[in-house]
Design brief:
Number of strands: 29
Distance between the termini: 145 Å
Helix content: 10-25%
Structural class: alpha/beta
Length: 573
């Protein structure tokens, strides 16, 4: 009993000391005057930097009030505790930004109850968690940004009372788990950024009450479970980003821009409309979009598509990238002869398995300005296939197995042509030289793209990864590679004059011996033998050879002397 009373007494003393420290500031506390610190006589907007306050000495505002202060920015300072005195002396404050100030605690006691603050931005501080009801006293809040902190835990009731909040930013933290009802009070939420965290679980309950969401950013997380129906109750999203987040299946109502690159996505079902879909580097075999007329842009590179069947009916499609898929033909059951995409402007079919193109394939693509057929299996290509493409500006056929292409007729039929990718085929050297000279005379650029390295589309839309199965297929097609600019053939002439064939997959060593190599080796061997004989002669004269060598030399000398004596005797006889 005595022990309990002692504990209670110590606790009361601690509380009294804490209250005394909070109410009665140290005499050395920083005396801060808003009127003198802000370079503005009316004090509507103010920016403060390099403020340092010790832990036990809260910031004291000297002037009685700043009734006209509307926006306050505090950055690059050292404030261990939230400067609640600033809010108390600024009743009209609507926006408070504290960036890189070292704040490490969030509590409801930091804000005057009922303060009309609309925007609170606390970025790049040291918060480790968002506690229960941390902002309940500033219930007028519409924007809350807590990005770039070290938050690893968010309490289930952290955002209680913020039913007017429209913008929430929690990006670049270390959040691993989201309580199922953490966003339930945010019924007017329109934008939420949870990207670049370590979130593992998203279920249908996570955003169940946030039906007004328009922007949802979930990219760069580590989902171990993402329910396919977690977002299908949201009526219309303007932007959804789930890139690089290990999402396997996804169902949506409608979305304007959908970013899904770099996941393990195998199925996407959009019941309504979708304007832009960027889902490159996934495992998609199909794409199901209900309102096909709404689609304007599709980036599906690096997937497993075997046909363009799902694209039939997208009459308003303007940009299509299906490079690095498994397309063997462009025919569909609805249009076996031609592509029914008459509004298409950009078409990338590179790095597929196309072998033949029918004469009517491009007949409806008069608006096309960019066509990429590089790195396929095309062995023959008739320039008449491309005559309907009267607006063509960029055309690429490198990395195929072509021996001939009527480039003169092709250029004559395309007055707007600016780029022509033609290398890495089976051109005979003189033919390729003539072709390149002709194209250069027409001021047409000749870009060079190597399959042994990553290469990008000329518009910079995406970067193609050459480490996939494309490299094995195209290795046989590599005959010429250039290290200079695409508009110069000087380097190639020099290589050809020396009898060297450069392959993109080889090192600088020739795969065979040239005449020059043989002559060089013979000369080196002769020089080596001469030097060796001179060395032996020198050692013999200096008697520095080993004993065995000296013995052999003496024996040879004695034999020679004996032979000379015998010859003299014979001559006398």
């Amino acid at each position: 009993m005595c022990v309990e009373k002692l504990k209670y007494t110590v606790f009361i003393c601690y509380v009294l000391i804490a209250v005394q420290c909070r109410v009665t500031p140290n005499a050395d506390a920083l005396q801060f005057n808003l009127t003198e610190s802000c370079d503005n006589t009316q004090i509507f907007f103010c920016t403060l930097t390099n403020i340092t306050v010790r832990l036990n000495d809260p910031l004291i505002v000297a002037n009685a009030t700043a009734p006209q202060l509307y926006e306050l920015v505090v950055r690059d300072s050292l404030l261990a505790r939230f400067p609640s005195a600033l809010l108390a002396q600024a009743p009209a404050l609507r926006s408070l930004l504290m960036h890189n100030c070292g704040l490490n605690r969030l509590t409801a006691y930091d804000y005057p109850k009922g303060h009309p603050l609309k925007s609170l931005i606390l970025q790049k501080n040291r918060f480790s968690d968002v506690p229960e009801k941390a902002f309940i006293t500033i219930y007028e809040l519409e924007e809350l940004q807590l990005g770039r902190n070290t938050i690893h835990m968010v309490h289930q009731n952290a955002f209680d009372g913020l039913d007017k909040l429209r913008y929430l930013d929690l990006q670049q933290n270390d959040i691993r788990e989201l309580p199922k009802s953490v966003f339930d009070d945010l019924i007017n939420l329109e934008h939420i950024d949870l990207s670049s965290n370590n979130i593992e679980l998203i279920v249908k309950r996570t955003f169940a009450q946030n039906t007004k969401l328009q922007t949802l950013l979930l990219g760069d997380n580590k989902f171990t479970e993402f329910a396919a129906n977690a977002l299908e109750h949201l009526p219309h999203l303007h932007l959804l980003d789930i890139s690089n987040s290990n999402v396997d299946e996804l169902s949506l109502q409608s979305v304007d821009t959908l970013l899904l690159s770099g996941s393990t996505l195998s199925s996407v079902v959009i019941a309504g409309s979708a304007v832009k879909v960027h889902a490159g580097n996934n495992q998609l075999t199909s794409l199901n979009i209900g309102d096909k007329l709404s689609v304007r842009e599709l980036d599906l590179h690096g997937n497993r598509l075997e046909s363009l069947e799902d694209l039939v009916g997208m009459l308003n499609l303007q940009r299509l990238d299906v490079s690095r898929n498994q397309l063997q033909s462009l025919r569909t059951s609805h249009s076996p002869l031609y592509l029914p995409l008459h509004n298409l402007v950009h078409l990338n079919l590179a790095s597929n398995q196309l072998q033949n193109l029918s004469a009517e394939t491009f007949v409806l693509l008069q608006k096309l300005t960019h066509l990429d057929l590089a790195f396929n299996h095309l062995l023959r290509l008739d320039q008449r296939l491309f005559e309907p493409l009267v607006n063509l500006e960029k055309f690429y056929i490198e990395g195929n197995g072509l021996h001939f292409f009527d480039y003169e007729q092709f250029v004559a039929a395309h007055a707007y042509l600016k780029e022509f990718g033609m290398f890495e085929n089976y051109w005979e050297y003189r033919y390729m030289r003539t072709m390149s000279a002709f194209l250069q005379d027409k001021n047409i650029q000749l870009p060079v793209r190597f399959t042994s390295n990553s290469y990008s589309n000329n518009n910079g839309a995406n970067v193609l990864d050459a480490t996939l199965n494309l490299a094995d297929k195209v290795a046989a097609h590599h005959r010429y590679a250039f290290t200079g600019s695409s508009s110069s053939m000087d380097d190639f002439d020099q290589l050809h004059a020396e009898g060297a064939t450069v392959d993109a997959d080889l090192t600088g060593i020739h795969p065979y011996w040239t005449t020059r190599d043989v002559l060089t080796m013979v000369i080196l061997l002769l020089v080596f033998l001469i030097l060796l004989l001179q060395l032996i002669t020198f050692c013999r004269e200096e008697e520095c050879l080993p004993n065995c060598c000296n013995r052999i030399a003496r024996n040879a000398h004695a034999n020679q002397r004996q032979r000379l004596d015998e010859e003299e005797e014979d001559s006398e006889v």
